[in-house]
Each structure stands twice: as structure tokens, then as C-alpha cells.
Amino acid sequence: MSSSDAVPAPSGPSAPGLPEVVDRETWETARTELLVEEKAHTRAGDALAAKRRRMPMLEVDGDATVVGPNGPVPFRSLFDGREELLVYQHMWWDGAPHQGQCEGCTLTAWHLQDSAYLRAAGVSFAVLTTGAWEEVEPFVAFMGYTEPWFSVRDTPEPIGGDMGHLQCYLRDGERVFLTYAITGRGTEVADPALGLLDLTAFGRREAWQDMPPGRVVENDPGWFWRLDADGAYTWGPTGRPAAQWTRPGATAETTLGRTGMHH
């Protein structure tokens, strides 16, 4: 190899706190070492999933009324003839305009816009919310959602009640059972953008993350969930959930319009 073909020696990063610059062999070694831990994490997840499959189940009222585009229907009908049903329970601000609806639930619902592979595996999908149907229906149209939504405003728990959960149901003939439910960070399984950000050097750029010395991020959790019309991050009254700026007719506003209850 001539001197002109030699690979340049690694140099340091141009900004403080960035990862160390190394040669390819050193990088491959570090990647291989981390892969061992990642494989263990995957196997631990498999073991947890096995425990979920062995959980007891809770019978619920399959005749409980939910309200959708065709009016009141029994909860059982959401299975659409399949054996299993997965639902996301979307929080709602009563009376708020589109830009005032829950930014965290918008994050999740936006990621759940095509359940083709769930259906192929015998699992139906629906979004439930405590919003009144007359408010929910225009919101669903504005967002362009094509998966089924239903209001559970007057439906007893666990179908109604607290929102912000992923829930799994099983149907045995006419009987309906709740087999699993998760909320909080457990719902991140439905938010692949968060998992992809976790692969990057800065992660979610949120202050709670364990970062290497010098790699400073100071944002609050969810800081990027709302943007203003110029793409600046804001939780103020001029912002919308980020996905809403993709929608036809989305305009800058001056208020979130949150005067009612949040469920």
C-alpha cells in the first residue's frame, strides 16, 4: 500500500462529548461486545412474553356498549369475528379543538395506522377513547385515521375508565376476557420512533437519559411531540402534535382550547 492509499489515523470529534473516533477493527470489537448484551436483552424479553401468555384472564362484559360510526354496538363486535383484539385507549380533552388533543396519545395512535399484519395473525385492532363521539368523529377524519375508533365515554372499566393503555382481549365464543394491559412507558412497544431514537448517539435528547460525560441534553420528556408552524418545538398555545402538521388544512393557532376535562 502506498502512503497515498493509507487509511488516515482517527482524529478526535470536532465537538465535546461526541463518541470516541476509532478504527474499523476497534469499532467492530465494541459492536460485538454490545451485541452480547443486546441478545441477552432479547432473550429476557422472550421470557417476559412467555409469562404474559401464562397470565390469568379477567372476564368482561362483551355486551358493553361502545359508540362508533354506526352508532352504539356491543364491545364484542370489535373482534370482527377474530379470536383476539388489541386496543389502544386514547386520552381526550373534552371540548378541545384538534390541536388541543393529547400529544402523547397522538404519538401512539399515529404509529398504529395499519393493522394489516395484526389482522393476518388473527388479531383485530381498535382505538378507544372517552371523548364523546360527536367530537371524536371529526378528529378522526382530520387525522386521516382509517383504523376503527370508538367512544367508551359511558362504558364501565376496564373497557372504559382510565385511558393511555394498550389492552389485549380474547374471545371464547360469546365470552370476552381481558388478558393483558400496560400503560406508561410500557406502551412504547407501539411507538417505533422512540425505539429508533434509542439506537442513535443522542437518543431522545431528553435529560433523564444516561449520557456519556460531555454529551449534554437538557430537554424535558416528550419535548418534540409538539411543534409550531415553523417547526420549532413548543408546548405552548401555538403548537400542535407534530403529526398534525402533515394534515391538510392544519394552521397556526393561538390556543390549545383546553377548557374541559382530560380523561
Outline the secondary-structure elements.
Blueprint: H1 24-52, E1 58-60, E2 65-68, E3 71-74, E4 84-90, H2 103-111, H3 116-120, E5 123-129, H4 133-143, E6 149-151, E7 165-172, E8 175-183, H5 192-197, E9 226-227, E10 240-241
Parallel strand pairs: 4-5, 5-6
Antiparallel strand pairs: 1-8, 2-3, 4-7, 7-8, 9-10
Structure in words:
- This protein is an alpha+beta fold.
- A hairpin with a 2-residue loop joins strand 2 and strand 3.
- The longest helix has 29 residues.
- The termini are far apart.
- The model has no long low-confidence stretch (mean pLDDT 93).
Which properties best describe this structure?
263 residues; alpha+beta; six-stranded mixed β-sheet; two-stranded antiparallel ribbon; 5 helices; 23% helix
Q: Strand sequence of the main sheet, in spatial order? A: 1-8-7-4-5-6
What is the average of the pLDDT values? 93
Rg measurement, Å: 23 Å
- SSE pattern: HEEEEHHEHEEEHEE
Helix percent reads 10-25%
Number of strand segments: 10
- Unreliable residue runs: none
Q: Helix count?
A: 5
Category from helices, strands and their pairing = alpha+beta
The largest pleated sheet is described as: 6 strands, mixed
User: What general outline do the C-alpha atoms trace?
Assistant: flat
